[in-house]
Design a protein that fits this description.
mainly alpha; EmrE-like; about 300 residues
Length: about 300
């Protein structure tokens, strides 16, 4: 069930990215990020009020569990720094590599209070397929842009850190209230970045999304993504979760491109197929090993 929820998170994430892309085109990167966090905060606030949960939002320990929303802002900043310096396909591939490394470290060492899941030999199959898929998505642009490569890797790491920290917070506040806090923490940071970018641009970054109200729905989907992540992170190994999210996001993105008449990257699609094949093979091997172990006990 939770692995299906992980795939659903990837699907939701792809739709959210598409909607937020239209919002960014209407305004600017940082103004759009502030709008997304504002809409998400208001939506989560309404849901929490309807839920009538009694647990407090603030005051939980350790304090760093409140940093998920702030870490998530770095993901946006890092991706923006890399955009235009290397290809979008390479940004996706390097982001996945960063996520893979961070997820394996969290699983193996039990970092950030997560359950310790030492690396298993059966996971080598998924890892090999993942690295092969990532290699297929990289192109020549990465050779001459070391900073862009570094920040793209950093973006992947921050994705895993943010969702893991948010999940730790959700253990004490509940998944929905954890999503609210994530947006509330990120909101002032994105507002400050938006105001700074507007001042630097002399007001030129203030746009308009008139006539297209649907472009403001990204914040609502953002609440859903954080909520689903809060449910799946404690229950699915970080490495597998990373791959399932990627698969859901990639193939939904391709479907959206086809429906909207946009071009999509063949390299990303092929790499996604390889990674998906690795996940399937890995699951089959793990099931087989588990059944073999059960028979051995009998």
């Amino acid at each position: 069930m939770y692995q299906l929820l992980a795939l659903l998170t990837g699907v939701t994430l792809a739709v959210m990215v598409s909607i937020n892309g239209n919002l960014t085109a209407a305004y600017s990167v940082f103004v759009a990020a502030a709008i997304v966090h504002l809409v998400g905060s208001l939506f989560a606030l309404v849901l929490c009020a309807a839920q009538r949960e009694k647990r407090p939002l603030w005051g939980h320990r350790p304090r760093w569990i409140y940093l998920g929303g702030a870490i998530g802002v770095f993901t946006t900043v890092f991706n923006n720094l890399a955009y235009g310096k290397i290809s979008m396909t390479s940004i996706v591939a390097l982001g996945l590599l960063g996520q893979t490394v961070a997820a394996l470290a969290i699983d193996h060492f039990g970092l950030l209070g997560m359950e310790k899941r030492p690396f298993q030999k059966s996971s080598l199959i998924g890892l090999a397929f993942s690295l092969a898929g990532i290699a297929m998505m990289l192109d020549h642009t990465v050779a001459a842009a070391a900073v862009a490569v570094a920040v793209s890797l950093g973006a992947g790491v921050t994705v895993v850190l943010s969702r893991t920290v948010n999940a730790r917070l959700a253990e004490q506040t509940g998944p929905l209230r954890g999503s609210l806090i994530n947006h509330l923490v990120g909101l002032p940071i994105t507002v400050a970045l938006a105001l700074g970018s507007i001042c630097l641009a002399g007001g030129a970054e203030v746009g308009s999304g008139a006539g297209r109200p649907w472009i403001y729905l990204g914040g609502i989907l953002g609440v859903a993504v954080v909520l689903l992540s809060n449910l799946t992170v404690p229950r699915v190994p970080a490495f597998r979760l990373t791959l399932l999210l990627f698969i859901g996001q990639i193939f939904t993105g391709v479907l959206l491109d086809l429906l909207l008449g946009n071009r999509f990257s063949d390299a990303t699609f092929r790499g996604g197929l390889v990674i998906a094949a690795g996940v399937i093979v890995n699951l089959v091997v793990e099931r087989w090993a588990a059944r073999k172990g059960e028979k051995g006990e009998d």
